[in-house]
Design the sequence.
């Protein structure tokens, strides 16, 4: 990747009034961020105006950023709403946005936000504490699509309007992850009028937010057109430009064929494209366009092993899978440039991440030895057997990401080298809950969870929740509960590090690669950046 | 037969192509010794050359070997699809044509319903219901052409039934079952077999279309449709990945159609 | 005549009901359900509790017995209400109404293009006296018919859009965006038209009335167009229903390749998401189109060939 961090010291003075008076996040004076499409350092100066056209692969069929989880759809919808806070994509730090400051109670149950004055929704109504209350009161009632938003506010007790610009959100149980959740589009603030509508109406017509762009037209599965709000003046404290955005108009078109997306970018028919594969990178660079990548924080792609299966109850077999995988080869052959082999169950840029690369090193001899010790001996076809049973792992996957197929084929080859047979079974996304219930799988590929907070570990691996991988009850559960209730960041990091170590050592899931999103961006587009959760903010982007 | 083949080079070529495909399906190692499932990742995306006739794919596997080894899967899917259509369609059409009256009416209305739903829609819904995999795709494709077979079979049975020798057999006291199997079916066979051969080509295309929409053989199996649709992601940098398997499909379908025409023609000339 | 039309309408209603039922049955057989599809894959779905899922099933009415669901939906469908999409909550009627004009524009353009191309090839092939040209033209339709439609689309995009930048690769705006998808869709249809027409033209040219016409001194062009084509177009007409069905089906592939909105895209998305109401809406609509096209063809046949007489009971055999 050609991107280098640009220090934005020039912005320093602008938002000093917005620094949190009380606690938590201090805006670093030299806030460094990276993620620009190019860094030609002043060869051209930013100019307002122009239309950005963006080809995305899919559409969720819903125009409500609180309900949609797909990044393809959020590329557009994210621009229409603002959140209470923002997260620095490099440091993971939570910084002011609609909330100028906030306090977290000692028991991590109550979060008090002090709003910026002078913010209005695109329908003209002002942003008040009451609007925040209405917006959050509606979240637990959102429908099936909004699994992320409803998960973030589980145990929601209510919001108290302290004064016109102060809102206190509280929970029945400690909820340390909530502050980070307020940075996401899932908990973006919508107007009181939007909050009153049904989830389906919000999907069809979109919501009214305070964002730098307004949704002008939305046709499901086809396109979304956004126009600039000229009176916008309350950007995130991480953004460079003050006031309204540069671009006049944003047009997002759904183009499912990846070859067509790439060709459209290289032939100048669009300015930016999503879902780029490694193989297309050369063509895009050759046409003078650039690549913008970002490692999605949270849990990366992994092979989740079903600990209840006889063969996999033996920790040695699980560990053998872990060390038989040559992560470097998979990354270099299949995944986008800049993708990193997994070094923990959490991606490298997730707050609380700890480096476990030694445990995840490739060592096929060690894998063979572990399998020998576990009593699995090589059969005539190279696949190991024990008591007449073959070491075949039924591996379930979804083809919702194009790169999964070659990645799994390579993984299959590597495991075959040590005598493990990976039998791939592709299912429809719709079959997932039934699969979870039946537990009829040995391994599950994917298992990624986009979340810039280590509570992702509790969501997926606590035996008290869904526990897809049938992890046996262990001290891990206590650790996961403790971190969720721990308001002190340093102590929380310690608990989270220990949890990661337990998961990786026991190989409940076998991390393979961090999840990385790469966009192809025309050379004419500048300052297109990723935000903390893997969304993009187009407020600072401009065209030359 | 040989001399007539020599006089028709197009037909001879078609027979050769189909023979090669069948050979590839039965003895793939003979035509392509390379391993279709294991590649050298460092040698991925190599254009066609003397060492890799069809180039290499995204994992450095030899595409020619994959196409040759994929013939078995594709041929199996195609044969199953046509067999489903042939057996089910033949039975429906045969019974309808032979029984006539109300049974004929009901069966043909059912066929009308099948015809009224576009084949690809029907296959799509069926394959989602049955699950992915070569066999399920084949059944879904076959089910979609049951209607066409029923119609042809019924028409043929009706035609043959009215023929003089059937009447003669009836007059001679041969029972209906005997008439059906000894006289009607063998004589109705010609057009149905021609249609079956033609349908082989259609089935190859239909299986490829479903593969294109994402319902193919599970990896790492190199089924033809999956090869074409997998290669389309790399149109910008590796044209051969989708073009060459595509050409193999075209050649196969074309040859099957040519042979079907010859079968049809010979019947007419007889 | 009126009796005949009424009879056919009755048949059409039965076909539509059966198509509706068949699509319902298939979708009931599908593993998983719409609610599961809604909650998404991977990590996100893992965080949904079973209680919440049950609650959502109740909300969408998919927890009721299959027969009750079928009855409710059928009763609504008879009134023209296909319910609301599970995935987006929008009425199926308006979803289809939005997608239909674009698919209609595409398929009708493709149909016109296919008729012109197919008839052109068939006429040229049967008219020409040079055997090699005739052979060449006659070998075109089977060749073209052996090429996967989506592959044609990808190749057209590759050359006419990316390399030479003549036409846009996607988008629904104006005629320029329509050229490549319509051409892709027209090619396999034209192949069928050309094959059917060439065969029946050859047959017709050997008929006695053609010889009579020739003997009466009619010129070759007149014989070809006035006499032979008129009689040869009847077999082509009878496959019109199948052609339209084929166009609708292929629109699934073409709309995907060219990123056009339309019925094809709607049904693919709906089948994947197991969005029962939407799939049924589209299936019943395409069945209706098929039935109507066939009815029109049958009513037109006597105009083309006066020997055909429509009767009240079974129509033509």
Sequence:
């Amino acid at each position: 990747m050609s991107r280098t961090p640009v220090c934005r010291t020039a912005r320093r003075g602008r938002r000093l009034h917005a620094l949190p008076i009380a606690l938590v996040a201090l805006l670093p004076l030299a806030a460094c961020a990276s993620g620009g499409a190019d860094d030609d350092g002043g060869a051209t100066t930013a100019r307002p105006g122009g239309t950005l056209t963006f080809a995305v692969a899919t559409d969720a069929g819903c125009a409500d950023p609180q309900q949609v989880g797909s990044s393809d759809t959020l590329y557009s919808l994210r621009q229409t709403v603002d959140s209470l806070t923002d997260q620095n994509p490099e440091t993971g730090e939570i910084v002011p946005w609609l909330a100028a400051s906030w306090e977290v109670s000692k028991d991590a149950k109550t979060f008090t936000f002090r709003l910026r004055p002078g913010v209005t929704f695109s329908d003209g109504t002002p942003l008040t504490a009451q609007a925040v209350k209405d917006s959050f009161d509606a979240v637990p009632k959102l429908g099936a699509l909004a699994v992320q938003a409803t998960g973030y506010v589980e145990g929601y007790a209510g919001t108290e309007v302290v004064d016109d610009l102060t809102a206190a959100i509280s929970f029945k149980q400690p909820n340390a992850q909530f502050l980070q959740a307020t940075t996401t589009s899932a908990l973006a603030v919508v107007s009181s009028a939007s909050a009153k509508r049904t989830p389906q109406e919000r999907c069809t017509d979109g919501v009214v937010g305070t964002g730098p762009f307004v949704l002008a037209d939305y046709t499901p599965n086809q396109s979304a057109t956004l126009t600039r709000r000229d009176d916008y003046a309350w950007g995130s404290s991480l953004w460079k430009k003050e006031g309204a955005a540069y671009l006049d108009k944003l047009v997002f078109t759904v183009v499912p064929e990846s070859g067509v997306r790439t060709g459209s970018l290289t032939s100048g028919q669009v300015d930016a494209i999503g879902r780029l594969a490694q193989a297309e990178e050369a063509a895009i660079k050759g046409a003078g366009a650039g690549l913008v990548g970002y490692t999605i924080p949270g849990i990366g792609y992994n092979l989740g092993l079903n600990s209840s299966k006889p063969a996999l109850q033996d920790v040695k077999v699980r560990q053998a899978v872990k060390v038989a995988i040559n992560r470097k080869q998979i990354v270099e052959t299949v995944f986008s440039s800049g993708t990193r082999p997994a070094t923990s169950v959490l991606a490298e840029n997730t707050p609380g991440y700890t480096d476990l690369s030694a445990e995840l090193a490739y060592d096929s001899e060690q894998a063979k030895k572990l399998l020998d010790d576990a009593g699995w001996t090589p059969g005539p076809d190279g696949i190991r057997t024990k008591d007449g049973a073959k070491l075949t792992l039924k591996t379930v996957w979804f083809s919702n990401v194009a790169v999964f197929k070659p990645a799994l084929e390579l993984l299959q080859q590597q495991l075959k080298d040590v005598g493990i047979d990976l039998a791939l079974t592709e299912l429809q996304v719709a079959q997932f809950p039934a699969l979870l219930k039946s537990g009829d799988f040995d391994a599950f590929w994917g298992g990624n969870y986009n979340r810039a907070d280590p509570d992702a570990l509790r969501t997926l691996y606590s035996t008290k929740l869904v526990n897809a991988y049938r992890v046996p009850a262990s001290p891990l559960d206590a650790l996961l509960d403790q971190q969720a209730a721990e308001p002190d960041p340093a102590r929380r990091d310690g608990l989270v590090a220990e949890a990661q170590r337990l998961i990786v050592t026991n190989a409940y899931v076998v991390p393979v690669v961090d999840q990385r999103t790469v966009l192809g961006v025309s050379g004419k587009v500048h300052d297109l950046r990723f935000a903390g959760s893997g969304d993009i903010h187009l407020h600072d982007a401009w065209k030359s | 037969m040989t001399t007539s083949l020599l006089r028709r080079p197009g037909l001879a070529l078609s027979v050769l192509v189909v023979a090669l495909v069948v050979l590839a399906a039965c003895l793939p190692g003979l035509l392509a010794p390379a391993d279709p499932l294991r590649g050298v990742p460092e040698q991925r995306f190599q254009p066609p050359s003397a060492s890799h006739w069809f180039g290499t794919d995204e994992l450095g596997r030899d595409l020619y070997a994959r196409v040759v080894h994929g013939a078995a899967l594709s041929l199996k899917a195609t044969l199953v699809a046509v067999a489903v259509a042939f057996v089910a369609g033949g039975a429906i059409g045969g019974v309808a044509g032979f029984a006539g009256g109300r049974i004929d009416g009901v069966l043909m209305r059912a066929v009308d319903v099948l015809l009224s739903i576009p084949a690809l829609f029907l296959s799509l819904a069926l394959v989602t219901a049955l699950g992915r995999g070569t066999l399920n795709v084949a059944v879904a494709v076959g089910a979609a052409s049951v209607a066409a077979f029923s119609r042809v079979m019924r028409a043929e049975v009706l035609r043959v039934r009215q023929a003089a020798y059937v009447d003669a057999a009836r007059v001679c006291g041969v029972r209906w079952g005997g008439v059906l199997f000894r006289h009607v079916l063998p004589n109705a066979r010609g057009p149905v077999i021609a249609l079956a051969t033609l349908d082989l080509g259609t089935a190859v295309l239909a299986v490829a279309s479903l593969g294109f929409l994402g319902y193919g053989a599970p990896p790492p199996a190199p089924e033809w449709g999956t090869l074409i649709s997998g290669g389309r992601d790399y149109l910008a940098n590796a044209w051969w990945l989708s073009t060459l398997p595509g050409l193999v499909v075209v050649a196969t379908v074309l040859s099957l159609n040519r042979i079907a025409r010859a079968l049809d023609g010979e019947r007419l000339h007889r | 005549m009126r009796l005949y039309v009424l009879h056919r309408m009755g048949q059409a209603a039965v076909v539509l009901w059966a198509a509706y039922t068949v699509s319902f049955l298939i979708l009931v057989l599908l593993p998983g359900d719409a609610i599961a599809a809604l909650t998404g894959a991977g990590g996100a779905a893992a965080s949904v509790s079973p209680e919440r899922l049950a609650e959502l099933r109740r909300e969408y009415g998919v927890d009721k017995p299959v027969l009750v669901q079928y009855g409710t939906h059928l009763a609504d469908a008879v009134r023209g209400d296909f319910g609301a999409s599970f995935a987006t909550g929008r009425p199926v009627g308006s979803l289809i109404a939005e997608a239909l004009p674009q698919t209609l524009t595409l398929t009708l353009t493709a149909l016109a293009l296919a008729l012109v191309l197919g008839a052109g090839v068939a006429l040229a092939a049967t008219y020409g006296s040079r055997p090699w040209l005739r052979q060449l033209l006659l070998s075109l339709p089977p060749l073209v018919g052996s090429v996967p439609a989506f592959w044609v689309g990808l190749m057209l995009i590759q050359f006419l859009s990316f390399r030479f930048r003549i036409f846009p690769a996607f988008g629904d705006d104006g005629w320029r965006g329509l050229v490549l998808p319509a051409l892709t869709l027209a090619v396999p249809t034209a192949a069928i038209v050309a094959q059917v027409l060439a065969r029946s033209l050859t047959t017709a040219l050997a008929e006695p009335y053609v010889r009579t016409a020739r003997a009466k001194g009619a010129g070759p062009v007149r014989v070809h167009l006035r006499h032979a084509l008129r009689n040869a177009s009847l077999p082509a007409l009878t496959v019109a229903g199948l052609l339209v069905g084929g166009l609708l089906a292929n629109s699934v592939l073409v709309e995907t390749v060219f990123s056009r909105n339309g019925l094809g895209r709607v049904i693919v998305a709906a089948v994947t998401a197991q969005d029962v109401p939407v799939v049924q809406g589209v299936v019943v609509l395409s069945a209706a189109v098929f039935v109507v096209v066939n009815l029109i063809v049958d009513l037109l046949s006597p105009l083309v060939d006066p020997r055909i007489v429509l009767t009240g009971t079974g129509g033509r055999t």
Q: What stands out?
A: Residues 1-42 of chain A have pLDDT under 50 and may be disordered.
